Fold Glycerol-3-phosphate dehydrogenase.
Amino acid sequence: KSVYFAHCTSEMIFITHLLAEDPEKLAGPLLADTYVTLLKGRNAWYGQMLAKGEISLDMGDSIKGKG
């Protein structure tokens, strides 16, 4: 499982750097939650708030009220 996770993580980082305008801001928990939201539909809080414009990538990954 750890090898699979390492490959998934490297793929997420690669895809993010290809698609994002400012990929350095998408890191750590925010990157993980974003991909979980996109791929699995779980923990969609970040995705919903980003879509509504209530949070931004500049706020980082420690955001008050994350459910």
Notes: The helical segments are 2-19, 28-40, 45-52. The chain has a mean pLDDT of 70. The chain has one domain: 2-59.
